[in-house]
Amino acid sequence: MTAQQTDVTIIGSGPAGYTAAIYLGRAGYQPTVIAGALTPGGQLVNTTEVENYPGFPEGIMGPDLMDAMRKQAERFGAKLVYDDVVGVDFSAGTKTLTLDGGDTITARAVVVTTGSRVRKLGVPGEAEFAGRGVSYCATCDGFFFRGKPIVVVGGGDSALTDADFLSRFGSSVTVVHRRDAFRASKILVDRAASNERIALHMNAVVERIDGDDSGVQSVVLRDTVDGSTSTLPANGVFVTIGHTPATEFLDGALELDEHGFIVVDGASTRTNVPGVFAAGDVVDSVYRQAVSAAGMGCRAALDAQDYLTNLD
């Protein structure tokens, strides 16, 4: 076990974490990035082609984009640690982080960019066809299903907003919801119901996702009332049943909202603890885009730099 002292440590990688590291590195702080033991780079490492990140007119593969950001952060002096934070102590001016491997890191400032995890269906075929028909981001992948049948799973505002967006591309969009009424806002329900390209399939759950080497071909649905099953053709399955922010390791050290996202002060990235900042999907429950996370990572770095300058 070792103890390391730093000016600033970033917990988490991905667009927010790497952008914060680039800015803080260029400011001369040589940040340490706790990038994660299993999935450094965040959700984009599991994404195929990214076409909506500025600067890449031909698109770029998600892992390639994250690898480029990592290299840029390291170029400016960031040190990456491939481990997970399992405990924090933010009670003193110097913050202490405990890693899963047993090491500890102290920092005068901390930036939390641990992101969020999509909630998954947990049905056969979901993992097998992830990235080959199963998606968790309509704005990222909708374009790839132009002229093809699409299924959206969920019943909240995000599900119906995604269905409306996907109706621009798919030959049809079927919203599958397990209950007989939507949790979404009435205006979104009315909009979906009036869209001739959207069908609402209530009281149903996805039992299985089927396909072949080319990708998803259909989903098997189970009626929650009578238990009967049916098969629905689909080439795209968009799972929109919520996100879970990765904040368990904080164990009450920061203020969270009712859904577990870190609360920040207005448009800043300042948390309720001086010297601790947060950015990306661990804060943002609305937009959840790589470019918005990167922008917030920039703001977190500037907020942290200002904090450290005032300390000095």
From TrEMBL:
Its cofactor is FAD. Pfam families: Pyr_redox_2 (PF07992). One of its GO terms (biological process) is removal of superoxide radicals. Binds 1 FAD per subunit. One of its GO terms (cellular component) is cytoplasm. Gene3D superfamilies: FAD/NAD(P)-binding domain (3.50.50.60). Its EC number is 1.8.1.9. The keyword Oxidoreductase applies. It catalyses: [thioredoxin]-dithiol + NADP(+) = [thioredoxin]-disulfide + NADPH + H(+). Keywords: Disulfide bond, FAD, Flavoprotein, NADP, Oxidoreductase, Redox-active center. GO terms for molecular function: thioredoxin-disulfide reductase (NADPH) activity. Residues 7-297 form the FAD/NAD(P)-binding domain. Coiled coil: none annotated. Belongs to the class-II pyridine nucleotide-disulfide oxidoreductase family. Homodimer. This is Thioredoxin reductase. It comes from Bifidobacterium boum.
